[in-house]
Amino acid sequence: MGRWEPNTRQRLAKAALELYSERGYEQTTVAEIARRAGLTERTFFRHYADKREVLFDGSEELRALFVTAVAGAPGSATPIDAMAAGLEAAGDLFHDRRPFARQRYAVIDANAELRERELIKLASLSTAIAETLRDRGVEEPAASLTAEAGMAVFKVGFERWIAENGERTLSALMRECLSELRNVTGGA
Amino acid sequence: MGRWEPNTRQRLAKAALELYSERGYEQTTVAEIARRAGLTERTFFRHYADKREVLFDGSEELRALFVTAVAGAPGSATPIDAMAAGLEAAGDLFHDRRPFARQRYAVIDANAELRERELIKLASLSTAIAETLRDRGVEEPAASLTAEAGMAVFKVGFERWIAENGERTLSALMRECLSELRNVTGGA
DNA sequence: ACGTTTGATGACAGTGACTGACATCGATCG
DNA sequence: CGATCGATGTCAGTCACTGTCATCAAACGT
C-alpha cells in the first residue's frame, strides 16, 4: 500500500465528471473536485493542465487507435478508404462506452469552453491523420481535406449516435454519413 | 464631441492586436491593452467578453455574408454549389485584407487558446450554414455534412492563402480545394 | 538494519482574468 | 434648468493557475 490512495488521476476525473454533471461546469471549483477525490487543488493541477483537460483523458487513446487503423489500411486503399478504416476503429472503441459517452457529451455540450476544447482535440486528431495519410503517399491538400472530411463524418455520426436510443451502432451511423458525404460532394 | 474619444471598440481591438503581435498573447495583460487604448481594464470587459474575443470582431460579418450567399444561391443549385457560393463570397471579403489577415493569423496560430476560439467560431459558422441549407430543403445529415465539408475547404484554402505569397486569390485556392475534395471523396 | 534518495503530495503566497456594485459626469430630454 | 441616461472609472472580490518549499512513506543501496 502506498502512502496515498491509488488511481489519483481516475479519482479526479470521476469526481470532476460527477460534479460537472450535478452542478454544471462553471458552478464547480477545482478545489471542490480535489476535495471529493480526497486531494488538494494543487494536486489536481499536477495531473491536469487545466479545469477542462480532466474531461479529455481519452483523447490520446483515440488518436493512437485512429492513426494505427489509418496507417494499417491496405496499401491499395484510397485515402478515403483508409480514413473509413479509422472511423471503424473509433466506432468499435466507443461501442461499449455509450452511457459514459452520453454523460460526458451532455457536460461538454452545455458549456462553450468545453466545446472549444473538444474542437481542438478533434482538430489535433485531424492533423495527426493528415500526417499519417501523407506517410501513405497522399499529397497535400488531399491529405488534409480527407482528414477534415473524415472528422466531419465522425462529428455528425457521433452526435446522431448520442441522440438516438441505440438503434444503430456508431460505426453504422458513420458509414451512413460517409455515404451521404459522397452524395453531396458528388465527386469525380 | 463626446466626453470620451470615439471608436472605443476599434481602439481596443487595435491595441490588442498590436500587443499580441509584439509580445505574445500570454505575455500581454488586459490592463496593458486598456492602457494603450486610453481606457481601463473594466471597460475592456464591457466591450469584449474575454481576452480572446477582441480578435474576433469580424466573425459576425463573415457569418452574415456567408449565410446570405448560401441562401441566395439559385434554387436549382445543389447543396455543394450553394456552399461554393458562400465560399466565393468569403473569398471576396478577404481579398483586400490580406496583410491584416496574415498578422491576425500569426497571432492566433501561436496560441492554443486562440486556436480554440477560432475553431468554435468556424463551428458556429458551420451550424449557421447547415441551418441555411435546411431552409433550402436539404435534409439532415446532408446539410451538416455539406457545411462541415465546406468549412474544411475554407480552412485548408485559407491556410494556403496565408502561407503563399499572393500568387493565387483566396477564392481560387478554395475552388481548387473543393475540386480536390470531390476527388478524394470519389462521390456518387 | 539503517541512512539516503525519490516521488507524490500538502501548504502557501502570488498573478491575472473576470465580475458585481457603486460613483462620476457630460450629453440629452422634457 | 433639473432629471435622466449612458459610457466610463473605481474598487473589492472570486477563482483559475503557478512557483516554491516542506513533508513523509516507500524504495534503494550499503
UniProtKB/TrEMBL annotation, chains A, B:
GO biological process terms held by the UniProt record: regulation of DNA-templated transcription
Q: From what superkingdom does this record's organism come?
A: Bacteria
Under the heading PROSITE patterns, the entry gives: HTH_TETR_2
Alphabetically sorted, this entry's keywords are: DNA-binding, Transcription, Transcription regulation
- An annotated Gene Ontology molecular function: DNA binding
Tell me if Manganese is a UniProt keyword of this record. Answer: no
Q: What is this protein called?
A: TetR family transcriptional regulator
